[in-house]
Fold:
Amino acid sequence: MKEASKWWKHSITDLKTAEYNLKGGMLNAAAFYSQQAAEKALKALQIEKLDRFERTHDLVYLAKSVEAPDTIVKLCELIAPFYTVTRYPDVEVSFDERKVSSVVEATREVVQWVERTLK
Structure:
């Protein structure tokens, strides 16, 4: 669990950072850290279940690799695009508080599912 624990702790920090940025109106940062939190949580679970993690940012793939239920896979589909659109300024996307808030909430659900599964 040592290696998985490192990824897990980073996931929790990223989720808190996403929530903090959402409250502060930094929507781009909130969306980015949400994606990162979900990715790191799923990688922690991969390490725990598979004794390895995939070097990918594809949340849907990561979720399926740990046999996540369909509800979690669907949440990952919602969160996944924010890895790219928050990192590249040439991708035109408008962020509104409602949309980013739903991404943060989806991430919270994914992280909570991972936490329950890790225990």
